[in-house]
Specification:
This protein is mainly alpha-helical and 139 residues long. It has eight helices and no strands. Helix 5 packs parallel to helix 8 and helix 7 packs antiparallel against helix 8. The chain is globular and about 45 Å long.
């Protein structure tokens, strides 16, 4: 297919999609900052490279990335769930935010951050589920 034909098939992001993506990325950036994550770690969490993440953070999401953004929003929802769970489980904000960088027997002695960077979405799901189960025991 020629580039001109492909461009004709591209659909613009709807205003609702643009708002959702913008808000999700803003929340993600705030959490990543609290977690003292490097750009490489942030990129790994969202499943993209550093350049793409920088572009997204500046509001430059292309229409061809619309399907990808659905997966990115899924990842962001796991990040938010992890953040929420940590703050329910650990009252001290600094301790809650540093938990991801500490070794954990549940993850074979590695940190949650290492697991997430290595395993991507599966790592995010594993950490999120682990913390959710701990929160259930509080109820």
């Amino acid at each position: 297919m020629k580039d001109s034909e492909t461009q004709g098939e591209e659909q613009s992001l709807s205003p609702d999609d643009e708002r959702l993506i913008k808000t999700g990325l803003k929340v993600f950036k705030n959490i990543a900052t609290k977690w003292s994550m490097t750009l490489e770690q942030q990129s790994a969490l969202l499943g993209c490279d550093d350049e793409t993440l920088n572009r997204w953070m500046h509001g430059n999401v292309t229409p061809t990335e619309q399907e990808l953004m659905k997966l990115v929003l899924t990842r962001i929802s796991h990040v938010f769930g992890i953040y929420r769970s940590l703050h329910l489980l650990i009252e001290n904000e600094e301790l809650a935010d540093s938990w991801l960088h500490k070794s954990n027997l549940e993850f074979d002695g590695q940190s949650a951050t290492s697991l997430i960077v290595r395993d991507g979405l599966n790592g995010l799901e594993r950490v999120h589920e682990y913390l959710q189960k701990l929160c259930e025991h509080l109820a």
